[in-house]
Write a structure and sequence with these properties.
Alpha/beta knot; 7-stranded parallel β-sheet; 7 strands
């Protein structure tokens, strides 16, 4: 029977070590995500994957915030983040920094997450949208392409923090292989 690892055995970094550690060139942009718990969950997964930063836009709540902290469990203190009132401004800034920006959205010409992961550019940003309305069409229009997670059940969407976790894990795995990080 397997014995669970203790926290000491896991050898986790502290916040200062994390801030100094190399990050993957992956940015997650939240376009008007209203749930503070979803925002917190994205921070926690971003920390686990050691991505570069989270960009909060529009109605997204920003740290410090007790509700974000409930799900982030302190990751909002380790992961770099920015806030933009306008998501389009954030997308344009990322493009100017050399990021290829993808919307995570169901669209006529979307590619699967697997297809995207197989041919990632050096620097990538993904935009995830509002829990009901998704990524704004104006933002979709300004992204390089849409990435879609194939779904086979009766529902046509997943919770935004679950989607973010799947996307971050898959893209981080590809980036880690490419950069040998």
């Amino acid at each position: 029977m397997s014995q669970k690892l203790t926290t000491a055995e896991m050898g986790r970094m502290n916040v200062d070590q994390y801030r100094e550690a190399a990050k993957l060139p992956l940015v997650v942009v939240l376009d008007n995500v209203r749930s503070q718990h979803n925002v917190g969950a994205v921070f926690r997964t971003a920390d686990a994957m050691r991505i570069e930063r989270v960009v909060l836009c529009g109605i997204c709540c920003c740290p410090p915030n007790a509700e974000i902290h409930k799900t982030a469990l302190g990751a909002e203190e380790s992961v770099e983040w920015q806030y933009y009132k306008d998501t389009l401004e954030a997308v344009q800034a990322l493009k100017a920094e050399g990021y290829t920006v993808y919307a995570v959205e169901q669209a006529h010409d979307s590619i699967t997450l697997e297809e995207a992961a197989e041919r990632l550019p050096e620097k990538v940003a993904v935009v995830l949208g509002h829990e009901v309305f998704g990524v704004q069409q104006e933002i979709v229009d300004n992204c390089s392409q849409c990435i879609e997670i194939p779904q086979y059940g009766t529902k046509h969407s997943m919770n935004v923090s679950v989607t973010a976790g799947i996307v971050m894990y898959r893209l981080a795995s590809s980036l880690r292989r490419a950069t040998k990080a």
